[in-house]
Structures are given as structure tokens and as C-alpha cells.
Specification:
This protein is of the alpha+beta class. It contains ten helices and twelve strands. It has three domains: 118 residues, 2-Layer Sandwich (Alpha-Beta Plaits), CATH 3.30.70; 63 residues, Ribosomal protein L10, N-terminal fragment, domain II (Molybdopterin biosynthesis moea protein, domain 2, Alpha-Beta Complex); 74 residues, no CATH class.
């Protein structure tokens, strides 16, 4: 590519980046052309994807001069492409994740999720595979004409690099630990870069975390008598109840307790009168 053409493409991409509120970096490594073009078509109207040489992409991001946008360049991406949208990055991540197709993991890839080989029959006949299972830490034995995993075995945590032995074992067990599709590695919005692990959280988890945070904040405010609006009303009710109890027990003649004190006096008078009548009957 001649220098003038490279400068033109950098400027064109930088100008495009400036127009959008969300800038994402996607990894298209290992994604066949047909699925890529299909996803690109389905995203039309929601987002655009630009595939450029890494050097052009990096220079365009720098020239766009958006706050903290350069942090996208620090993300681990094998074959980067840029995604531009005004949609919410979390909603977009969820959409792209739903479009991914499960597949067998390859050596050198990073695990997308936790992978656990469950205890039980594998459906595999006795043979060299039992040595392969044991070589990656899976406890297995031969029972009849089947190889059986004796206990659950966690092989991978999210982000672990998958070596050749593990990839081979997972394929033989029929466990698809990877997927094909666009992977949104990170997204920039309003000066904040959201990495893959942050974006990959369900709405339900966020909702539960928010509810828990509100509950904990309320408990803290209540226990330290912080006059937050949500706490003040409850504290006033509690203080009123304490004041009424104090006035009642100390026989303080306040209008809020006069009626209760009169009722108490009436009950005591009635009880006293009954006691006197009982004594009279005993003496009589």
C-alpha cells in the first residue's frame, strides 16, 4: 500500500470513529468468510465493522483522539477489526454472543468459559484414550465396554490457554469448549473501556448486584443514623414509638399518651375494685 493510500485510509477511519458513541474491538481470528459476512449483514443498521491492517487501525484510533480510546490497543487480540455503533455495548455484546456457534476448541485458544468434565460414562470404548484422559488430570477407569470418569474434573477456567492435549481430549469427549463468531474483546463508551469479562455479565446478575448494593447501603445508613431520605421516615417512626413508650412508662402527661394513661388508670381502678370486693366477700 502506497503512503498516500495509507494516510487516506487512516483519516477515513479516524473520521468514522469520531462519529460514533461506542467503539469496539472484535477478534475475527479463525472466523470463516461466509459466517462473517452473514453477521455483518445482520448487524446492518445497528453497527458497522471495518477490517483494516493492524497498523492502520492503531493509527486511526490514536488520531481519533478520544479520551482513553487508546486503551483498546492494549487488549489481547489475534486478528482485530473495529466495530462502530451508537447502541449500548452490553446489549451489543449479548447480541453477538447469541450469534456464536459452539465448536471444538483448538490448541492455543483461550477458554471462553469454565469447562468441567462430568463424572459418568463417556461412551468411549477401552483403549489409548484412557491414558489421554489421565494425562490431563481426569480420573477414569474401564467398566465393561465403557470408559467411565470417576469424578467431576475441572479442566479449564475462563481465559486459560488450551494446550494440544486438552483440546484433543475435549474433542474425543464431544465437549465443545469454543465457539465461532464475532468476539467483542472490548468496547469504549464515554471515556470508559469495558473489557470482555465486564461485558460478559448477564442482566440478571447486574440486577441482583444493584439490589444487593441498595440493601447494603440502606442497612449502613440505618445503622449509623445517616439522614438519607429513605432512612429518615423509618427513623422518625421508630423515634416516635420510643418517645411514646417513654412518656407512657414515665407517666408524662402529653396529649399523645393521655388517652392511654387514662385507659391504664381505668383498668387499674377496676382491678383494685375487684380485689376489694373479693376481700369483702371473704370477710362476709
Amino acid at each position: 500500500m502506497v503512503k498516500e493510500e495509507k494516510i487516506r485510509r487512516v483519516k477515513e477511519l479516524a473520521d468514522l470513529i469520531k462519529k460514533y458513541g461506542v467503539v469496539g474491538i472484535i477478534d475475527i481470528y479463525g472466523l470463516p468468510s461466509d459466517p462473517f459476512q452473514q453477521i455483518r449483514k445482520e448487524l446492518r443498521g445497528k453497527a458497522i465493522i471495518r477490517v483494516e491492517k493492524k497498523s492502520i487501525l492503531e493509527r486511526a484510533i490514536r488520531e481519533a483522539n478520544k479520551s482513553n480510546l487508546k486503551k483498546l490497543l492494549e487488549l489481547d487480540v489475534k486478528m482485530p477489526a473495529i466495530l462502530l455503533t451508537d447502541d449500548n455495548p452490553f446489549r451489543l455484546f449479548k447480541l453477538l454472543k447469541k450469534k456464536r456457534t459452539p465448536t471444538f476448541a483448538k490448541s492455543g485458544e483461550r477458554a471462553e468459559r469454565e469447562v468441567v468434565v462430568p463424572a459418568g460414562p463417556t461412551g468411549l470404548p477401552p483403549g489409548p484414550i484412557i491414558s489421554d484422559l489421565k494425562s490431563v488430570g481426569i480420573k477414569a477407569s474401564i467398566q465393561g465396554q465403557d470408559i467411565v470418569v470417576q469424578e467431576d474434573c475441572k479442566l479449564l477456567d475462563p481465559g486459560d490457554v488450551i494446550d494440544e492435549k486438552v483440546a484433543n481430549v475435549l474433542m474425543k469427549l464431544g465437549i465443545k469448549a469454543s465457539s465461532i463468531g464475532l468476539k467483542l474483546v472490548g468496547a469504549w463508551e464515554n471515556g470508559v473501556v469495558y473489557t470482555h469479562d465486564v461485558l460478559d455479565v448477564s442482566a440478571e446478575e447486574y440486577e441482583n448486584e444493584i439490589i444487593e448494593a441498595v440493601q447494603q447501603s440502606f442497612n449502613l445508613a440505618y445503622n449509623i443514623d445517616y439522614p438519607a431520605r429513605e432512612v429518615v421516615e423509618i427513623k422518625l417512626v421508630k423515634a416516635t414509638q420510643h418517645a411514646l413508650n417513654l412518656a407512657y412508662n414515665a407517666v408524662i402527661y402529653e396529649k399523645e399518651v393521655i388517652e392511654m394513661l387514662l385507659q391504664k388508670a381505668q383498668f387499674e381502678a377496676m382491678a383494685l375494685n375487684e380485689a376489694v370486693e373479693d376481700k369483702k366477700m371473704i370477710r362476709g
